[in-house]
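Query structure, 584 C-alpha coordinates:
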Protein backbone atom coordinates (compact mmCIF):
# COMPACT_ATOMS: atom_id res chain seq x y z
CA UNK A 1 0.00 0.00 0.00
CA UNK A 2 1.29 3.49 -0.81
CA UNK A 3 2.09 5.81 2.06
CA UNK A 4 -0.37 8.62 2.46
CA UNK A 5 2.26 11.30 1.86
CA UNK A 6 3.25 9.66 -1.40
CA UNK A 7 -0.37 9.51 -2.53
CA UNK A 8 -0.98 13.15 -1.75
CA UNK A 9 2.33 14.23 -3.23
CA UNK A 10 1.46 12.36 -6.41
CA UNK A 11 -1.79 14.29 -6.71
CA UNK A 12 -0.17 17.64 -6.12
CA UNK A 13 2.63 16.72 -8.53
CA UNK A 14 -0.06 16.02 -11.13
CA UNK A 15 -1.41 19.49 -10.35
CA UNK A 16 1.99 21.06 -11.06
CA UNK A 17 2.23 19.11 -14.30
CA UNK A 18 -1.34 20.02 -15.22
CA UNK A 19 -0.53 23.69 -14.77
CA UNK A 20 2.52 23.32 -16.99
CA UNK A 21 5.24 23.01 -14.35
CA UNK A 22 7.68 20.29 -13.43
CA UNK A 23 5.93 17.60 -11.36
CA UNK A 24 9.05 17.34 -9.17
CA UNK A 25 7.93 20.45 -7.28
CA UNK A 26 4.87 18.67 -5.91
CA UNK A 27 6.35 17.32 -2.70
CA UNK A 28 3.92 17.44 0.23
CA UNK A 29 4.80 17.43 3.93
CA UNK A 30 2.79 17.33 7.11
CA UNK A 31 1.78 20.88 7.96
CA UNK A 32 3.90 22.77 10.45
CA UNK A 33 0.86 24.97 11.10
CA UNK A 34 -1.84 22.44 12.03
CA UNK A 35 -4.12 25.35 12.91
CA UNK A 36 -4.14 26.36 9.23
CA UNK A 37 -4.03 23.09 7.36
CA UNK A 38 -3.20 19.40 7.57
CA UNK A 39 -0.63 19.14 4.80
CA UNK A 40 1.34 21.65 2.85
CA UNK A 41 3.38 21.95 -0.32
CA UNK A 42 6.10 24.58 -0.62
CA UNK A 43 7.05 23.69 -4.19
CA UNK A 44 5.87 26.97 -5.71
CA UNK A 45 8.75 28.81 -4.06
CA UNK A 46 11.62 26.98 -5.81
CA UNK A 47 9.45 26.71 -8.95
CA UNK A 48 9.20 30.51 -8.99
CA UNK A 49 12.99 30.72 -9.38
CA UNK A 50 12.99 28.26 -12.25
CA UNK A 51 10.09 29.83 -14.10
CA UNK A 52 10.75 33.48 -13.16
CA UNK A 53 7.24 34.02 -11.87
CA UNK A 54 5.71 35.08 -8.59
CA UNK A 55 5.35 32.04 -6.30
CA UNK A 56 1.77 32.92 -5.42
CA UNK A 57 0.83 32.89 -9.09
CA UNK A 58 2.19 29.37 -9.50
CA UNK A 59 0.53 28.26 -6.25
CA UNK A 60 -2.79 29.61 -7.46
CA UNK A 61 -2.53 27.83 -10.79
CA UNK A 62 -1.66 24.57 -9.10
CA UNK A 63 -4.48 25.03 -6.58
CA UNK A 64 -6.90 25.44 -9.47
CA UNK A 65 -5.54 22.31 -11.14
CA UNK A 66 -5.87 20.27 -7.94
CA UNK A 67 -9.18 21.74 -6.83
CA UNK A 68 -11.45 19.00 -8.13
CA UNK A 69 -9.37 16.17 -6.65
CA UNK A 70 -11.46 13.86 -4.45
CA UNK A 71 -8.59 13.49 -1.96
CA UNK A 72 -8.90 17.08 -0.80
CA UNK A 73 -11.62 19.02 0.93
CA UNK A 74 -9.60 22.22 0.74
CA UNK A 75 -6.74 23.44 -1.44
CA UNK A 76 -5.64 26.97 -0.79
CA UNK A 77 -2.83 29.08 -2.20
CA UNK A 78 -1.55 31.54 0.39
CA UNK A 79 1.18 34.13 0.27
CA UNK A 80 4.01 34.03 -0.43
CA UNK A 81 3.32 30.77 -2.27
CA UNK A 82 2.27 27.98 0.03
CA UNK A 83 -0.31 25.40 -0.87
CA UNK A 84 -2.38 24.53 2.18
CA UNK A 85 -4.23 21.26 2.05
CA UNK A 86 -6.97 19.52 3.98
CA UNK A 87 -8.03 15.97 3.27
CA UNK A 88 -11.51 14.87 2.40
CA UNK A 89 -12.82 12.71 5.29
CA UNK A 90 -14.46 10.27 2.87
CA UNK A 91 -11.20 9.72 1.06
CA UNK A 92 -9.36 9.41 4.37
CA UNK A 93 -11.88 6.84 5.59
CA UNK A 94 -11.36 4.83 2.41
CA UNK A 95 -7.61 4.91 3.01
CA UNK A 96 -8.06 3.71 6.59
CA UNK A 97 -10.39 0.99 5.43
CA UNK A 98 -7.61 -0.24 3.15
CA UNK A 99 -5.25 -0.18 6.13
CA UNK A 100 -7.76 -2.07 8.25
CA UNK A 101 -8.13 -4.92 5.77
CA UNK A 102 -4.52 -5.12 4.57
CA UNK A 103 -1.99 -7.39 6.14
CA UNK A 104 0.32 -5.46 8.49
CA UNK A 105 -1.87 -2.40 7.91
CA UNK A 106 -0.50 -2.17 4.40
CA UNK A 107 3.03 -1.31 5.52
CA UNK A 108 5.31 -2.57 2.77
CA UNK A 109 8.03 -5.07 3.60
CA UNK A 110 11.64 -4.24 2.81
CA UNK A 111 12.10 -5.46 -0.78
CA UNK A 112 15.69 -6.38 0.13
CA UNK A 113 14.66 -8.33 3.26
CA UNK A 114 16.87 -11.26 4.20
CA UNK A 115 18.51 -12.67 7.28
CA UNK A 116 19.47 -10.26 10.05
CA UNK A 117 21.48 -11.20 13.13
CA UNK A 118 20.89 -9.05 16.18
CA UNK A 119 23.61 -9.36 18.81
CA UNK A 120 22.14 -8.17 22.09
CA UNK A 121 21.90 -9.08 25.75
CA UNK A 122 25.62 -9.74 26.04
CA UNK A 123 25.48 -10.97 29.62
CA UNK A 124 28.65 -12.21 31.21
CA UNK A 125 28.23 -15.69 32.62
CA UNK A 126 29.15 -16.18 36.31
CA UNK A 127 28.67 -12.49 36.97
CA UNK A 128 25.20 -11.51 38.11
CA UNK A 129 23.03 -9.94 35.43
CA UNK A 130 23.12 -6.29 36.30
CA UNK A 131 21.35 -3.28 34.97
CA UNK A 132 24.27 -2.33 32.73
CA UNK A 133 22.90 -5.02 30.43
CA UNK A 134 19.27 -3.99 30.78
CA UNK A 135 19.29 -1.50 27.94
CA UNK A 136 20.86 -3.97 25.54
CA UNK A 137 18.06 -6.44 26.25
CA UNK A 138 15.27 -3.88 25.95
CA UNK A 139 16.54 -2.01 22.90
CA UNK A 140 17.81 -5.15 21.19
CA UNK A 141 14.50 -6.96 21.54
CA UNK A 142 12.67 -4.01 19.99
CA UNK A 143 15.20 -3.59 17.17
CA UNK A 144 14.86 -7.28 16.40
CA UNK A 145 11.07 -7.11 16.28
CA UNK A 146 11.21 -4.07 13.97
CA UNK A 147 13.62 -5.88 11.64
CA UNK A 148 11.27 -8.84 11.62
CA UNK A 149 8.23 -6.69 10.91
CA UNK A 150 9.85 -5.50 7.71
CA UNK A 151 10.16 -9.03 6.45
CA UNK A 152 13.62 -10.02 7.59
CA UNK A 153 14.28 -13.38 9.13
CA UNK A 154 15.78 -12.44 12.46
CA UNK A 155 18.24 -14.31 14.63
CA UNK A 156 18.73 -12.87 18.08
CA UNK A 157 21.99 -14.08 19.56
CA UNK A 158 22.75 -13.23 23.16
CA UNK A 159 26.51 -13.62 22.67
CA UNK A 160 27.32 -14.58 26.23
CA UNK A 161 30.58 -13.49 27.75
CA UNK A 162 31.48 -17.05 28.73
CA UNK A 163 35.16 -17.51 28.02
CA UNK A 164 37.04 -14.93 29.98
CA UNK A 165 38.86 -14.37 33.22
CA UNK A 166 35.64 -14.51 35.26
CA UNK A 167 35.63 -18.26 34.71
CA UNK A 168 39.20 -18.61 35.95
CA UNK A 169 38.34 -16.50 39.00
CA UNK A 170 35.46 -18.77 39.95
CA UNK A 171 37.51 -21.90 39.36
CA UNK A 172 40.44 -20.60 41.42
CA UNK A 173 38.14 -19.58 44.26
CA UNK A 174 36.44 -22.99 44.30
CA UNK A 175 39.77 -24.74 44.25
CA UNK A 176 40.86 -22.66 47.19
CA UNK A 177 37.74 -23.39 49.23
CA UNK A 178 37.09 -27.00 48.25
CA UNK A 179 40.35 -28.51 46.96
CA UNK A 180 38.99 -32.00 47.65
CA UNK A 181 36.46 -31.78 44.78
CA UNK A 182 37.07 -34.27 42.00
CA UNK A 183 37.36 -31.46 39.44
CA UNK A 184 40.75 -30.56 40.85
CA UNK A 185 42.13 -34.09 41.05
CA UNK A 186 44.35 -34.61 37.97
CA UNK A 187 44.10 -38.38 38.46
CA UNK A 188 40.31 -38.36 38.30
CA UNK A 189 39.07 -39.86 35.05
CA UNK A 190 35.36 -39.12 35.36
CA UNK A 191 32.55 -39.09 34.86
CA UNK A 192 32.06 -35.80 36.67
CA UNK A 193 28.90 -35.28 38.74
CA UNK A 194 25.76 -34.11 36.97
CA UNK A 195 24.91 -31.75 39.77
CA UNK A 196 26.83 -28.46 40.13
CA UNK A 197 28.70 -28.03 43.44
CA UNK A 198 27.15 -24.53 43.76
CA UNK A 199 23.89 -22.67 43.22
CA UNK A 200 23.32 -19.35 41.53
CA UNK A 201 23.40 -17.58 44.90
CA UNK A 202 26.74 -19.21 45.66
CA UNK A 203 28.04 -18.00 42.31
CA UNK A 204 26.82 -14.52 43.02
CA UNK A 205 28.90 -14.54 46.17
CA UNK A 206 31.94 -16.33 44.75
CA UNK A 207 32.56 -14.17 41.71
CA UNK A 208 32.60 -10.70 43.33
CA UNK A 209 34.71 -11.98 46.22
CA UNK A 210 37.18 -13.61 43.85
CA UNK A 211 37.30 -10.55 41.67
CA UNK A 212 38.03 -8.31 44.66
CA UNK A 213 40.63 -10.69 46.01
CA UNK A 214 42.49 -10.84 42.69
CA UNK A 215 43.07 -7.11 42.94
CA UNK A 216 45.06 -7.37 46.16
CA UNK A 217 46.28 -10.96 46.21
CA UNK A 218 48.82 -11.42 43.44
CA UNK A 219 49.21 -15.11 44.00
CA UNK A 220 45.48 -15.62 43.66
CA UNK A 221 45.33 -13.42 40.56
CA UNK A 222 47.99 -15.57 38.92
CA UNK A 223 46.09 -18.75 39.83
CA UNK A 224 42.95 -17.31 38.24
CA UNK A 225 44.87 -16.45 35.08
CA UNK A 226 46.39 -19.90 34.95
CA UNK A 227 43.00 -21.50 35.49
CA UNK A 228 41.57 -19.42 32.64
CA UNK A 229 44.42 -20.51 30.40
CA UNK A 230 44.09 -24.18 31.35
CA UNK A 231 40.35 -24.06 30.85
CA UNK A 232 40.87 -22.63 27.40
CA UNK A 233 43.39 -25.41 26.69
CA UNK A 234 40.70 -27.92 27.60
CA UNK A 235 41.66 -29.27 31.05
CA UNK A 236 38.79 -31.76 31.72
CA UNK A 237 38.08 -30.91 35.38
CA UNK A 238 37.94 -27.20 34.61
CA UNK A 239 35.77 -27.77 31.59
CA UNK A 240 33.39 -29.73 33.81
CA UNK A 241 33.15 -26.80 36.24
CA UNK A 242 32.74 -24.41 33.33
CA UNK A 243 29.78 -26.47 32.13
CA UNK A 244 28.23 -26.25 35.59
CA UNK A 245 28.72 -22.49 35.68
CA UNK A 246 27.13 -22.24 32.25
CA UNK A 247 24.11 -24.35 33.16
CA UNK A 248 23.46 -22.59 36.44
CA UNK A 249 23.94 -19.10 34.96
CA UNK A 250 21.92 -19.74 31.83
CA UNK A 251 18.95 -20.98 33.83
CA UNK A 252 19.06 -17.79 35.87
CA UNK A 253 19.51 -15.57 32.81
CA UNK A 254 16.61 -17.24 31.05
CA UNK A 255 14.38 -16.59 34.03
CA UNK A 256 15.26 -12.89 34.03
CA UNK A 257 14.99 -12.48 30.28
CA UNK A 258 11.63 -14.27 30.28
CA UNK A 259 10.30 -11.77 32.75
CA UNK A 260 11.50 -9.00 30.47
CA UNK A 261 9.76 -10.54 27.47
CA UNK A 262 13.16 -10.93 25.84
CA UNK A 263 13.74 -14.10 23.82
CA UNK A 264 16.81 -15.20 21.93
CA UNK A 265 16.75 -17.52 18.95
CA UNK A 266 20.24 -18.74 19.84
CA UNK A 267 22.28 -18.69 23.01
CA UNK A 268 25.77 -18.72 21.60
CA UNK A 269 28.70 -17.11 23.30
CA UNK A 270 32.34 -16.22 23.08
CA UNK A 271 33.27 -19.86 23.73
CA UNK A 272 31.43 -20.94 20.57
CA UNK A 273 33.61 -18.68 18.46
CA UNK A 274 36.90 -20.19 19.63
CA UNK A 275 37.05 -22.99 17.08
CA UNK A 276 36.73 -20.41 14.31
CA UNK A 277 39.85 -18.56 15.43
CA UNK A 278 42.67 -20.83 14.10
CA UNK A 279 41.35 -21.06 10.52
CA UNK A 280 40.61 -17.34 10.61
CA UNK A 281 44.20 -16.60 11.67
CA UNK A 282 45.55 -18.81 8.86
CA UNK A 283 43.40 -16.91 6.45
CA UNK A 284 44.56 -13.55 7.74
CA UNK A 285 48.18 -14.65 7.45
CA UNK A 286 47.62 -15.85 3.90
CA UNK A 287 46.15 -12.47 3.02
CA UNK A 288 49.17 -10.78 4.53
CA UNK A 289 47.16 -8.40 6.67
CA UNK A 290 48.62 -9.38 10.05
CA UNK A 291 51.33 -6.97 11.07
CA UNK A 292 53.79 -7.30 13.97
CA UNK A 293 53.51 -4.43 16.38
CA UNK A 294 55.33 -4.40 19.72
CA UNK A 295 55.28 -8.19 19.72
CA UNK A 296 51.57 -8.40 19.00
CA UNK A 297 49.84 -9.33 15.75
CA UNK A 298 47.57 -6.58 14.59
CA UNK A 299 45.50 -5.45 11.62
CA UNK A 300 45.96 -1.82 10.66
CA UNK A 301 42.59 -0.15 10.26
CA UNK A 302 43.43 3.54 10.01
CA UNK A 303 42.05 5.09 6.82
CA UNK A 304 43.34 8.19 5.03
CA UNK A 305 40.02 9.96 5.48
CA UNK A 306 40.03 9.54 9.27
CA UNK A 307 40.17 12.77 11.22
CA UNK A 308 41.08 10.99 14.42
CA UNK A 309 43.43 8.16 15.18
CA UNK A 310 41.94 4.69 14.86
CA UNK A 311 44.40 2.34 16.55
CA UNK A 312 45.13 -1.05 15.02
CA UNK A 313 42.88 -3.97 15.88
CA UNK A 314 44.92 -6.31 18.07
CA UNK A 315 44.38 -9.92 17.08
CA UNK A 316 46.93 -11.77 19.19
CA UNK A 317 49.15 -10.68 22.05
CA UNK A 318 52.81 -11.64 22.28
CA UNK A 319 52.01 -14.50 24.67
CA UNK A 320 49.62 -16.04 22.12
CA UNK A 321 46.48 -14.90 23.90
CA UNK A 322 43.59 -13.73 21.76
CA UNK A 323 41.33 -10.82 22.68
CA UNK A 324 37.76 -9.56 22.73
CA UNK A 325 38.19 -8.28 19.16
CA UNK A 326 39.55 -11.65 17.99
CA UNK A 327 36.48 -13.36 19.37
CA UNK A 328 34.17 -10.83 17.74
CA UNK A 329 35.88 -11.35 14.39
CA UNK A 330 35.66 -15.12 14.73
CA UNK A 331 31.98 -14.72 15.62
CA UNK A 332 31.45 -12.82 12.38
CA UNK A 333 33.05 -15.71 10.55
CA UNK A 334 30.79 -18.14 12.38
CA UNK A 335 27.67 -16.08 11.58
CA UNK A 336 28.55 -15.71 7.92
CA UNK A 337 29.19 -19.44 7.61
CA UNK A 338 26.03 -20.40 9.48
CA UNK A 339 23.47 -17.86 8.28
CA UNK A 340 25.08 -15.61 5.67
CA UNK A 341 23.14 -12.61 7.02
CA UNK A 342 22.67 -9.42 5.02
CA UNK A 343 23.14 -7.41 8.19
CA UNK A 344 24.54 -7.86 11.69
CA UNK A 345 23.41 -5.39 14.33
CA UNK A 346 25.20 -5.02 17.65
CA UNK A 347 23.20 -3.48 20.45
CA UNK A 348 26.02 -2.69 22.84
CA UNK A 349 27.01 0.16 25.16
CA UNK A 350 28.17 3.15 23.10
CA UNK A 351 31.43 3.22 25.02
CA UNK A 352 32.42 0.24 22.88
CA UNK A 353 32.09 2.18 19.64
CA UNK A 354 35.82 2.29 18.91
CA UNK A 355 36.02 -1.46 19.45
CA UNK A 356 33.31 -2.04 16.87
CA UNK A 357 34.80 0.43 14.42
CA UNK A 358 38.06 -1.53 14.60
CA UNK A 359 36.34 -4.89 14.36
CA UNK A 360 34.18 -3.89 11.39
CA UNK A 361 37.12 -2.49 9.47
CA UNK A 362 39.25 -5.51 10.26
CA UNK A 363 36.40 -7.81 9.20
CA UNK A 364 36.23 -6.12 5.80
CA UNK A 365 39.99 -6.18 5.35
CA UNK A 366 40.02 -9.85 6.26
CA UNK A 367 37.23 -10.60 3.80
CA UNK A 368 35.08 -12.06 6.57
CA UNK A 369 31.97 -10.43 5.14
CA UNK A 370 30.68 -9.64 1.68
CA UNK A 371 30.97 -6.05 0.50
CA UNK A 372 27.19 -5.70 0.82
CA UNK A 373 26.97 -7.14 4.34
CA UNK A 374 25.99 -4.39 6.75
CA UNK A 375 27.72 -4.27 10.12
CA UNK A 376 26.21 -1.76 12.48
CA UNK A 377 26.83 -0.89 16.10
CA UNK A 378 23.72 0.51 17.78
CA UNK A 379 25.40 2.11 20.77
CA UNK A 380 23.30 3.05 23.75
CA UNK A 381 23.87 5.51 26.55
CA UNK A 382 23.85 5.01 30.29
CA UNK A 383 20.87 4.58 32.57
CA UNK A 384 21.46 7.07 35.35
CA UNK A 385 19.98 7.55 38.79
CA UNK A 386 18.30 10.77 39.85
CA UNK A 387 21.73 12.10 40.84
CA UNK A 388 22.74 11.93 37.19
CA UNK A 389 25.31 9.22 37.88
CA UNK A 390 25.08 5.60 36.70
CA UNK A 391 22.20 3.91 38.51
CA UNK A 392 23.20 2.20 41.76
CA UNK A 393 21.55 0.40 44.64
CA UNK A 394 20.77 2.43 47.73
CA UNK A 395 23.92 0.98 49.26
CA UNK A 396 25.89 2.26 46.26
CA UNK A 397 26.49 -1.12 44.64
CA UNK A 398 25.70 -2.31 41.15
CA UNK A 399 22.06 -3.25 41.08
CA UNK A 400 21.07 -6.73 40.03
CA UNK A 401 18.54 -6.78 37.27
CA UNK A 402 16.28 -9.08 39.21
CA UNK A 403 16.19 -6.64 42.12
CA UNK A 404 15.25 -3.82 39.82
CA UNK A 405 12.44 -5.80 38.21
CA UNK A 406 11.16 -6.81 41.64
CA UNK A 407 11.19 -3.22 42.86
CA UNK A 408 9.19 -1.97 39.90
CA UNK A 409 6.78 -4.87 40.18
CA UNK A 410 6.17 -4.20 43.87
CA UNK A 411 5.66 -0.52 43.18
CA UNK A 412 3.12 -1.21 40.46
CA UNK A 413 1.37 -3.95 42.41
CA UNK A 414 0.76 -1.52 45.27
CA UNK A 415 -0.89 0.88 42.82
CA UNK A 416 -2.97 -1.84 41.24
CA UNK A 417 -4.21 -2.99 44.65
CA UNK A 418 -4.77 0.47 46.02
CA UNK A 419 -6.84 1.55 43.01
CA UNK A 420 -8.56 -1.85 42.84
CA UNK A 421 -7.84 -1.94 39.11
CA UNK A 422 -8.32 -5.69 39.11
CA UNK A 423 -8.77 -8.26 41.82
CA UNK A 424 -7.83 -11.82 42.71
CA UNK A 425 -6.08 -13.89 40.07
CA UNK A 426 -5.75 -10.99 37.68
CA UNK A 427 -3.54 -8.91 39.94
CA UNK A 428 -0.25 -10.60 39.07
CA UNK A 429 -0.74 -10.61 35.30
CA UNK A 430 -1.89 -7.01 35.17
CA UNK A 431 0.90 -5.92 37.48
CA UNK A 432 3.55 -7.68 35.42
CA UNK A 433 2.29 -6.12 32.18
CA UNK A 434 2.13 -2.60 33.57
CA UNK A 435 5.55 -2.93 35.20
CA UNK A 436 7.11 -4.12 31.97
CA UNK A 437 5.50 -1.30 30.00
CA UNK A 438 6.77 1.23 32.55
CA UNK A 439 10.31 -0.10 32.43
CA UNK A 440 10.58 -0.58 28.68
CA UNK A 441 8.77 2.55 27.56
CA UNK A 442 10.79 4.63 30.03
CA UNK A 443 13.89 3.38 28.30
CA UNK A 444 12.78 3.22 24.67
CA UNK A 445 11.21 6.67 24.55
CA UNK A 446 14.77 8.03 24.55
CA UNK A 447 16.94 7.78 21.47
CA UNK A 448 19.26 4.80 22.16
CA UNK A 449 22.43 6.89 22.24
CA UNK A 450 21.06 9.24 24.91
CA UNK A 451 21.71 8.74 28.61
CA UNK A 452 18.52 8.85 30.63
CA UNK A 453 17.41 9.06 34.22
CA UNK A 454 15.64 6.11 35.71
CA UNK A 455 12.68 7.41 37.66
CA UNK A 456 10.18 4.82 38.76
CA UNK A 457 7.54 7.36 39.88
CA UNK A 458 7.55 8.98 36.48
CA UNK A 459 7.79 5.75 34.44
CA UNK A 460 4.94 4.07 36.31
CA UNK A 461 2.55 7.05 36.26
CA UNK A 462 -0.76 6.41 34.54
CA UNK A 463 -0.77 9.87 33.03
CA UNK A 464 1.74 11.63 30.82
CA UNK A 465 4.16 10.15 28.35
CA UNK A 466 4.50 6.70 29.92
CA UNK A 467 4.02 3.05 29.13
CA UNK A 468 1.11 2.63 31.58
CA UNK A 469 -0.71 5.56 29.92
CA UNK A 470 -0.47 3.80 26.56
CA UNK A 471 -1.77 0.57 28.11
CA UNK A 472 -4.56 2.46 29.80
CA UNK A 473 -5.67 3.89 26.47
CA UNK A 474 -5.73 0.45 24.89
CA UNK A 475 -7.63 -1.07 27.80
CA UNK A 476 -10.17 1.71 27.64
CA UNK A 477 -10.78 1.10 23.93
CA UNK A 478 -11.02 -2.63 24.59
CA UNK A 479 -13.73 -2.02 27.12
CA UNK A 480 -15.79 0.14 24.74
CA UNK A 481 -15.46 -2.47 22.02
CA UNK A 482 -16.45 -5.22 24.44
CA UNK A 483 -19.56 -3.33 25.40
CA UNK A 484 -20.43 -2.69 21.77
CA UNK A 485 -20.14 -6.31 20.67
CA UNK A 486 -18.75 -7.76 17.44
CA UNK A 487 -16.62 -5.01 15.89
CA UNK A 488 -13.88 -6.81 13.97
CA UNK A 489 -15.57 -6.80 10.58
CA UNK A 490 -17.07 -3.33 10.57
CA UNK A 491 -15.55 -1.19 7.82
CA UNK A 492 -14.12 2.24 8.51
CA UNK A 493 -16.59 4.53 6.83
CA UNK A 494 -17.83 8.06 6.82
CA UNK A 495 -19.77 9.90 8.15
CA UNK A 496 -17.03 10.63 10.61
CA UNK A 497 -17.26 14.02 12.18
CA UNK A 498 -14.63 16.65 12.81
CA UNK A 499 -13.53 15.22 16.15
CA UNK A 500 -12.38 12.07 14.42
CA UNK A 501 -10.12 13.83 11.97
CA UNK A 502 -6.99 14.11 14.12
CA UNK A 503 -7.22 10.46 15.03
CA UNK A 504 -7.71 9.48 11.39
CA UNK A 505 -4.75 11.57 10.28
CA UNK A 506 -2.57 10.13 13.02
CA UNK A 507 -3.45 6.58 11.99
CA UNK A 508 -2.41 7.23 8.40
CA UNK A 509 1.10 8.12 9.52
CA UNK A 510 1.88 4.61 10.79
CA UNK A 511 3.84 3.43 7.73
CA UNK A 512 6.03 6.51 7.66
CA UNK A 513 6.87 6.21 11.34
CA UNK A 514 7.67 2.51 11.21
CA UNK A 515 9.84 2.98 8.15
CA UNK A 516 11.82 5.70 9.89
CA UNK A 517 12.20 3.56 13.02
CA UNK A 518 13.44 0.70 10.83
CA UNK A 519 15.82 2.83 8.80
CA UNK A 520 17.32 4.65 11.79
CA UNK A 521 17.22 1.85 14.41
CA UNK A 522 15.01 4.13 16.46
CA UNK A 523 12.28 2.57 18.62
CA UNK A 524 11.92 6.03 20.21
CA UNK A 525 10.08 7.14 17.06
CA UNK A 526 7.49 4.45 17.68
CA UNK A 527 7.12 5.65 21.28
CA UNK A 528 6.54 9.23 20.12
CA UNK A 529 3.96 7.94 17.66
CA UNK A 530 1.98 5.80 20.11
CA UNK A 531 1.93 8.72 22.51
CA UNK A 532 0.50 10.99 19.84
CA UNK A 533 -1.98 8.35 18.71
CA UNK A 534 -3.10 7.62 22.27
CA UNK A 535 -3.59 11.36 22.81
CA UNK A 536 -5.80 11.59 19.72
CA UNK A 537 -7.75 8.50 20.79
CA UNK A 538 -8.41 9.91 24.25
CA UNK A 539 -9.44 13.26 22.86
CA UNK A 540 -11.82 11.57 20.45
CA UNK A 541 -13.24 9.48 23.26
CA UNK A 542 -13.86 12.58 25.39
CA UNK A 543 -15.47 14.58 22.64
CA UNK A 544 -17.60 11.86 21.13
CA UNK A 545 -20.49 9.87 22.52
CA UNK A 546 -19.60 6.52 21.10
CA UNK A 547 -21.79 3.98 22.87
CA UNK A 548 -24.77 6.31 23.13
CA UNK A 549 -24.65 7.51 19.53
CA UNK A 550 -28.14 7.11 18.04
CA UNK A 551 -27.29 6.94 14.35
CA UNK A 552 -26.15 3.31 13.94
CA UNK A 553 -24.16 4.03 10.77
CA UNK A 554 -22.28 6.82 12.43
CA UNK A 555 -21.68 4.63 15.45
CA UNK A 556 -20.28 1.89 13.24
CA UNK A 557 -17.82 4.38 11.82
CA UNK A 558 -16.70 5.30 15.34
CA UNK A 559 -16.35 1.72 16.41
CA UNK A 560 -14.37 0.73 13.33
CA UNK A 561 -12.10 3.70 13.87
CA UNK A 562 -11.29 2.91 17.50
CA UNK A 563 -11.01 -0.77 16.63
CA UNK A 564 -8.31 0.08 14.10
CA UNK A 565 -6.69 2.41 16.63
CA UNK A 566 -6.52 -0.39 19.18
CA UNK A 567 -4.96 -2.77 16.68
CA UNK A 568 -2.37 -0.21 15.58
CA UNK A 569 -1.47 0.64 19.17
CA UNK A 570 -1.13 -3.04 20.01
CA UNK A 571 1.03 -3.69 16.97
CA UNK A 572 3.28 -0.78 17.94
CA UNK A 573 3.76 -1.84 21.55
CA UNK A 574 4.45 -5.34 20.35
CA UNK A 575 7.33 -3.85 18.35
CA UNK A 576 8.47 -2.16 21.54
CA UNK A 577 8.32 -5.50 23.34
CA UNK A 578 5.37 -5.31 25.72
CA UNK A 579 1.62 -5.90 25.69
CA UNK A 580 -1.59 -4.65 27.28
CA UNK A 581 -3.63 -6.44 29.94
CA UNK A 582 -7.37 -7.08 29.55
CA UNK A 583 -8.29 -4.76 32.38
CA UNK A 584 -6.60 -2.09 34.43
N1 LIG B 1 29.76 -9.21 27.17
C1 LIG B 1 30.04 -7.90 26.67
C2 LIG B 1 30.03 -6.87 27.81
O1 LIG B 1 29.51 -7.13 28.86
C3 LIG B 1 29.04 -7.46 25.64
C4 LIG B 1 29.02 -8.27 24.38
C5 LIG B 1 28.53 -7.48 23.22
N2 LIG B 1 28.56 -8.18 21.96
C6 LIG B 1 29.65 -8.37 21.23
N3 LIG B 1 29.55 -9.06 20.15
N4 LIG B 1 30.82 -7.88 21.58
O2 LIG B 1 30.57 -5.79 27.62
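Result returned for the query:
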Amino acid sequence: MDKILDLISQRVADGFAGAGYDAGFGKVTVSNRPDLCEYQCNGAMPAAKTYHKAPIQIAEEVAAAVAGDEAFSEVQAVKPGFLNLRLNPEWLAAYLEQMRTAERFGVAKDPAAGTVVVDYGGANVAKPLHIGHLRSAIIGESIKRIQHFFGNETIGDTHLGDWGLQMGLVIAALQDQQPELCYFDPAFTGPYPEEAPFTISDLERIYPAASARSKTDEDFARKAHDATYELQQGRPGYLAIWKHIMAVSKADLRKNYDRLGVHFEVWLGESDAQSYIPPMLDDMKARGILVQSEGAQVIEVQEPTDTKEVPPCIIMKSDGATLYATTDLATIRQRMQTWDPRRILYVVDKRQSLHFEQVFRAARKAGLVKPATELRHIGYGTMNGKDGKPFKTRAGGVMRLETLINEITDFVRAKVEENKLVTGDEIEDTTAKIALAALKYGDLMNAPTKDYIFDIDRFAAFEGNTGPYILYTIVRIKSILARYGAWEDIPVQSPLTGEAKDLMLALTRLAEVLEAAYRDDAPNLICAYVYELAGCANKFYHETRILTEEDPEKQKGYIALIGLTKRVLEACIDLLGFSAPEKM
